[in-house]
Amino acid sequence: MDEAKDTENDRREADSAPPAFRAAVDALKAARLRPQIEVEPTPPPRRLAPHSYALEAAVVDGDQDLADGRLVLLHDPAGHDAWQGTFRLVTLVRAELEPEMAADPLLPEVCWSWLTGALQTRGLTYGEPSGTVTRASSHYFGGLSARPAASQIEIRASWTPREGLGGAPDTAAHLAAWCDLLAQIAGLPPAGPGDASVVTLPQRRGPQSR
Fold it and tell me: What phi, psi does 104 have (nearest 5°)?
């Protein structure tokens, strides 16, 4: 009963949303992505902006997830001083790494450059980028001592996509760039000849089970 009510509320909210936001969401839904990446809608945060839409994605190899993430589109028709615009994209991307790769002192800078490089490669203009790159390592003891040490990289970022005709940004292209980042951090080969210079992470010790 609650799920049906939530669905109806979501439908009413979508119908009452500004045309620019509806166009931006429609573009996300219609985007064509590489087959290794599975994308589906997920409940968005409600308190960050008057209008929001969210997607979650996983880079899949068989029944294994190589990387996963979440992309949130925010819209405030009145504008937002911190965004310097009316739209904002917020993301979280995670992947497991070999411990020795995670120890590379240049890894945070490299991972951040993958995000900005993915946007630039797609010819996208954006503003006010901000975020963090976090490395975490887990070591197991006692009854869990048989497990090998695990390391994870996590990218949290946000940026303001430039608005186009009709006030909506090219969200399909931003989604494609985000998926390029997911593919890179998962260690997949470049998608096409234009991406041949992209440096990817070595394959992790073992992909995570879904």
Answer: -65, 120
Cα gap 78→91, rounded to integer Å:
22
Domain residue extents for the chain: 2-198
Helix or strand (DSSP H, E) at 205: none
**125-134 confidence digits (pLDDT tens):** 999 999 999 9
Q: Supply the DSSP string of 5-72, one letter for each residue.
A: HHHHHHHHHHHHS-HHHHHHHHHHHH----TTEEEEEEPPPSSSSSEEEEEEEEEEETTEEEEEEEEE
| Collapsed DSSP state (helix, strand, coil) of residue 145 | coil
Q: Write the pLDDT tens digit of every residue in 156-183.
A: 999 999 988 778 999 999 999 999 999 9
77 close to 19: Cβ distance less than 8 angstroms: no
Section 99-127 average pLDDT: 88
The DSSP code for 201 is: P
The model's pTM: 0.81
Under a CB-based contact definition with an 8 Å cutoff, are residues 135 and 102 in contact? yes
